[in-house]
Amino acid sequence: MKKVGLFGGTFDPPHKGHLKLSQTVLNTLNLDEIWFIPTFNPPHKKGAVATPEQRLTMLNKLLEDDQRLKVSTIEYELKGKSYTYETVKRLCKEYPNTMFYFIIGGDMVEYLPKWYKIEELKRLIQFVGVNRKGHHAVNQRGVLMVNMDEVPVSSSEIRKDIKEGRLPQGLTESVLHYIRENELYED
């Protein structure tokens, strides 16, 4: 059975921290692949700054050097607000011989009980919580925990740096070039 990690997010923009997290989980749990799932319309946020197409292009640029890291456009196909349960249900139907591991930040583990259809979701996938050094998540029954080194980068800080005219840290050259070429996050 194939073992695939699912890493959902807005990825606005995607950065080296996303790469480090995915590679850490991939190697720690000996997964075959990790599929990044950019949200089309995140239900928990006001909205992305970059368009869905721009975020998808940046994500493909970020992942271009590691064949084990792929992009799934399933939430773009589903349109509307993205709920993990609906996405996972469809993936399980399309890939019945795949064991899915859903990756979340360690800080999100304590919020799992509030997720939409969480009990049904737990029957479909294995949750993986990623702890960064210096942060300790609340342990939830049935969540595998993986530890990784701190990567001091965030999408919101990158957007802020660009808006304020500073050179952002944590982007690959190809993603930074795309952002500059398309004048993203400047206003």
From TrEMBL:
Pathway: Cofactor biosynthesis; NAD(+) biosynthesis; deamido-NAD(+) from nicotinate D-ribonucleotide: step 1/1
Residues in Cytidyltransferase-like domain copies: 6-160
Domain of life per record: Bacteria
EC category name: transferase
Catalysis: reaction(s): nicotinate beta-D-ribonucleotide + ATP + H(+) = deamido-NAD(+) + diphosphate
InterPro entries, A to Z: Cyt_trans-like, NadD/NMNAT, Rossmann-like_a/b/a_fold
Annotated Gene3D superfamilies: HUPs (3.40.50.620)
Annotated family: Belongs to the NadD family.
PANTHER family given in the database record: NICOTINATE-NUCLEOTIDE ADENYLYLTRANSFERASE-RELATED, PHOSPHOPANTETHEINE ADENYLYLTRANSFERASE
Descriptive protein name: Probable nicotinate-nucleotide adenylyltransferase
